[in-house]
Each structure stands twice: as C-alpha cells, then as structure tokens.
C-alpha cells in the first residue's frame, strides 16, 4: 500500500506546487503592474509561508490526535479483552491472533469482533449468575421468613470481576444446599402440621384454627408459600408439645374417671349393659398416651360425660350401699347362726347404718370390712366344723367303747385277761379314730 501512497503524494505535491507557482506568478504580475516595492513583496511572501506552515501544523496535529485516539482505542480494547478473559476465567480465545500486525485501523478492526464475542459471552455468563444468585436470595429469604421478597433480577448484584465457571459452580452448589435445606424444612413443617392435625382430631379441636394461629401461611386456604423460618419451626414444635401435654392431661383425667367408674360399678354390681355405655372410657385404662390416635377419643365432651356419670353414680352409691350392707349383714348372721357363733350386736350395726346415712364413712372401706368379717366368719365356721366332726367321732367311739365293755363283761370277761382286754380296747379306739 505504501507503493501506491508515494505516487499519490508526489502527484498531490506537484499539483500543489504548480497551483501555487501559477498563483505566485500572477501575484508577481500584479505587483509589477502596481509597482509594489520589494519590502512589501517579501513581507507578503513571508506571511503566505507562515500561513501555509500553520495550515500544515493543524493538519499534522489533527493527524496526531487521530493516531493517539486509535492507539487509545486499541489499548482499551486490548485491556477490556484481557479483563474479560480474566473475569470469565479463560486463558485464551480460539481464533484470536497471538500477535496483531498492520496499521492501527487494521489492528482495531481485527480485535473488534473478538471483543464483541467476549462481551456477548460475558453478558450470557452474567445472566447465569443473576439467575443462580436470584434463586439463592429468594430461598434464603424464604428460610429467613421474609414474607415479601422482590425477586426481580435488578436486585441481584453480580461481581463482574469474577465470572468464572468455578465461581458459578460454587453458587450452584450453594443453591443445591439451600434447595435441600428448604425441602427439609418443608418436610418438618408438613410433619408438624400432620401431628397437629392428628392431635387435634384426637382432642376434638379445630386444627385449622391452631395452625393459622401459628402463622397464616401454614393454612392451605391462604394460597401463599409456607413460612419455614426458624421461629415458625419453634412455634410449631411448641404447639405440638402443648397439644401432647393436653393429651396427657386429658388421658390422666379419663384414667381417674375410668377407675372411679370401675370401682362404682363393682361396688354397686352395675349390669354389663350399663357399663358398656362408658366402655370407651374404661378401655383407656390400659392405654398410654402414645398409643391413642382414634378421632374424638379425648374430647372435652367425653370427659364431661364421664364426670357426670361418676357424679350420678356417687349420688346413687349411698342408697345402694344400704342395700349392699344389709345383704352382707344377713349373710354374716346366717354364717354365725349355722356355726353357733356370736352375732355382731344390733347397736353396732345401727351405728354403721347411721354413718352410711351421714356420709361419714368410706363405702369401699365399709364393704371391705364387711367382706373381711364374712371371710373370718367362714374360716371360723370351717374350723368349728372340723372340731365338731372330731367331737362327733369321739362321742361315737366312746359309745362303741361302752358297748364293748358291757358286751365283754357279760360274755368274755372270765376268759380274757385284763391286760389283753385293754390292748384290744386300744386297738379298737385306734381303728375308729
């Protein structure tokens, strides 16, 4: 290209010189005709020369500025390209010449498309970072319990100095960890909600009210994502513990009421059909809190009904006790009469009856005492029966002995020695006993 520029430059100079020479000749002719002196002529020529130099200088300065600008653009492009390589974590870009040659414009034209490609790759990589970091911020906000979160990409700040694949992978690993933590927290929340629902069903409570009280987002009807923050998990755990404690308290009440019902039924010989009405209460006596899950097993209505039944049976117990006491008194008297034993005095029995009427004696203890007396009377009667049987045997043996004595005295006394007689008598006595 230099071989082409030289003739053009020479031709331009020749044209300029011929044009200037023609004008200078014309100026000389004018001066000769006018009669301009030599001093003025030299001064004008000097001014013309100075003006030409200034024009050339301006053109040279403009060319220098243009060259400097091209150098700066090329340097900036090189610097930006290098920075993009470093920020993207790239060592080199395929297709880029190792060392550029040619004019400044040629070098600039050579690096411009490569730089544009790197800029596009940077923008694509930044979009990837924005997407990953945006999800990280969103999930982190959900875990922190922030109800309102602006998930627009404008809120994501990307570090443009490090857009390497290694850094992107680190963010992706962090995102996976947060996804897992979110999933774990959601599972814990769902487990807590399920436990609350089961406990509420057993206790006869409205689970939706309890869950909404913890946080409205936990209610499916709200239509918003569930709050999975630490504070909500703590509240759910506290709610479950409170419901489990209420479950234990109610079960203890029903255990107490069930035992009371059983004692009253046994005390008053309540029919099986009447007992079946509250079998759902007595069945809980052998069941622990963890084993109860049937709906409505521990409702307040169940407790109130059992309490009312215990209270009703308590009122009936006094009149029933009189009847039971009289039955056991008659049974005791019959045993004593059959065995010829002393019967408890009527005054003692009347005193006990007065205590029953006044409610100053424990009915269960009274019946237990009566049962003990009847048991002792039966034992005494049994022991007396054995003694009476022995007495009867002894009396029978004595009668037999007298008969033998009389018989031997009349028939065999002269023939049998007295010693032999006594031996025979002892033998007979041993036989009867």
UniProtKB/TrEMBL annotation:
Q: Which keywords, in A-to-Z order, does the entry hold? A: Coiled coil, Cytoplasm, Cytoskeleton, Microtubule
Which ranges of the sequence are coiled-coil? Answer: 161-188
Which InterPro entries does the record associate with it? Answer: MAP65_Ase1_PRC1
MF terms (GO), sorted A to Z: microtubule binding
The GO annotation for biological process reads: microtubule cytoskeleton organization
- What cellular component terms from Gene Ontology apply here? cytoplasm; microtubule; spindle
Q: Where in the cell is it found?
A: Cytoplasm, Cytoskeleton
Say yes or no: keyword Cytoplasm present.
yes
On the tree of life, the source organism's domain of life is Eukaryota
The Swiss-Prot or TrEMBL record describes its family as follows: Belongs to the MAP65/ASE1 family.
- Record PANTHER family: 65-KDA MICROTUBULE-ASSOCIATED PROTEIN 8, PROTEIN REGULATOR OF CYTOKINESIS 1 PRC1-RELATED
Q: What is this protein called?
A: 65-kDa microtubule-associated protein 8
